[in-house]
Specification:
Structural class: alpha+beta
Largest sheet: 8 strands, antiparallel
Strand order of the largest sheet: 1-2-3-4-8-7-6-5
Strand content: 25-35%
Number of strands: 8
Shape: globular
Order of helices and strands: HHEEEEHEEEEH
Length: 171
């Protein structure tokens, strides 16, 4: 009888731990930045009604949100098999606005990060199913802030060592 009680307690403990882990994983994924990765072109056009095809490149089919990057803000998307695999937001101007946006992105997204490689003007973060790259550079009188989401994270193929080996050398 006492062994049965111990087995029942052990079973409850394992069940409680499993539920706790599942809850933690679900809440952790919900606490990551949103993006458009995985959306189809139809879903993308609901958010970006002017999205249009530009050309096919090695990364996939390149689409734009229809806005002119020289006017300050624009988004680009790579699609493979009709799904967004990469999303890029670019902000350009000849004033300090891109640097302010870059700083705000770093402050906001560093709170979410799981794995990161930080540097001067180039920051790389890895989440559950995607990687994020936040960059700032100034050249030819233009300041540019870039935010890039790429499919692939720690839950689907990217290991901590691979991520750090790839990005920590580039910062």
């Amino acid at each position: 009888m006492e062994q049965r009680k111990l087995s029942l307690l052990w079973y409850r403990f394992i069940l409680t731990m499993a539920l706790g882990c599942i809850t933690m994983l679900c809440s952790a994924r919900g606490n990551e930045p949103g993006n458009n990765l995985g959306k189809t072109i139809s879903e993308l056009r609901q958010v970006f009604p002017n999205a249009r095809y530009l050309r096919t490149e090695v990364n996939g089919d390149l689409y734009t949100d229809g806005e002119d990057p020289s006017e300050g803000l624009s988004c680009f998307f790579y699609l493979k098999n009709n799904r967004v695999i990469e999303e890029c937001m670019i902000i350009q101007s000849n004033d300090g606005f891109p640097k302010m946006v870059y700083d705000a992105w770093i402050n906001t997204f560093s709170k979410y990060m799981r794995v990161a490689a930080f540097g001067i003007g180039a920051n790389h973060m890895c989440f559950s199913t995607f990687s994020m790259h936040i960059m700032f550079f100034a050249e030819h009188g233009k300041n540019t802030a870039l935010l890039v989401y790429q499919a692939g994270g720690v839950n689907n193929g990217i290991t901590y060592n691979d991520f750090m080996n790839k990005w920590s050398k580039k910062v």
